[in-house]
Amino acid sequence: MTQWNKIELEHNINLESSIEGGQIFNWFKIADFYIILFSDWAIKIKSKNNFLFWQSYPKKDNIEKAVKFLNLEVLSTLEKYKSDMNIKKAIGAIGKLLLFRQNYEQATISFILSARQNIKNIRKQSLKLSSEYGAKIKIDENKFFLFPKIEVLAKQNETSLRNLKIGYKSSYIIHAAKMIHENCDNFKNLSLENKYCFIKTLKGVGNKIADCVSVFSLGDYSKVPIDVWAKRAIIKLYGAKEQQSYSYYQSYYRKIFPVESAYPAQYIFEFFRRFNNEK
């Protein structure tokens, strides 16, 4: 039986939207809880009323990893935008969202997989990589595969990944894994902007993927990933012009949400994606 750690919050957290909305992809839902898998640990998590319940594996009660991943301090950002009517509607419709911080190596590989794919297929490919190259972990009575360590992926070849139905992105993943592994020590000492520039040197990484990695792993909330829903939402809800550049829409989000833009923007496009502004 799980011995849960418990965190009391001011508001109930919508874990379904937070986890299944495209921030992370290596997860399973079992009964009323989620298992989220990383390269060297996993977390079991559920939400009830105003409480988050969690436990870590294989090391139990790993507060350091859990606190960094859950990133609860970002919740206070919304206080700055409580007068925004669209933010109010979004919170009323979907509740409070978490903005996770995952390992940047895993985030980079996962978002390289994300190009031109829906969440279901990204997750399917991510879990394939894990079952082929990740270490086994036992959580309660269930066995799972952790996400592959970057040094393991760096040793693979394109053919082996193509056999997993990864397709043309196989070469991107191999290149990224080798570059990340070779530059691991140097990367830690770079500024946020230089980390962003390094990520953009990887094959298959453009503005959106680099922005996703920056937000969901590096904690750079000045970046706003722009996908079709983010674009539609800013046009419909805030009057942005149609058929403009990526940088135009990102700047528009920053103008509306000048502080930690990524977090309120997450509410806007998640709300618009789910409800298409019908409520």
UniProtKB/TrEMBL annotation:
<dbReference type="InterPro" id="IPR023170">
    <property type="entry name" value="HhH_base_excis_C"/>
</dbReference>
<dbReference type="InterPro" id="IPR003265">
    <property type="entry name" value="HhH-GPD_domain"/>
</dbReference>
<comment type="similarity">
    <text>Belongs to the type-1 OGG1 family.</text>
</comment>
<feature type="domain" description="HhH-GPD">
    <location>
        <begin position="113"/>
        <end position="273"/>
    </location>
</feature>
<dbReference type="GO" id="GO:0140078">
    <property type="term" value="F:class I DNA-(apurinic or apyrimidinic site) endonuclease activity"/>
</dbReference>
<dbReference type="GO" id="GO:0006284">
    <property type="term" value="P:base-excision repair"/>
</dbReference>
<dbReference type="InterPro" id="IPR052054">
    <property type="entry name" value="Oxidative_DNA_repair_enzyme"/>
</dbReference>
<protein>
    <recommendedName>
        <fullName>DNA-(apurinic or apyrimidinic site) lyase</fullName>
        <ecNumber>4.2.99.18</ecNumber>
    </recommendedName>
</protein>
<dbReference type="Pfam" id="PF00730">
    <property type="entry name" value="HhH-GPD"/>
</dbReference>
<dbReference type="InterPro" id="IPR011257">
    <property type="entry name" value="DNA_glycosylase"/>
</dbReference>
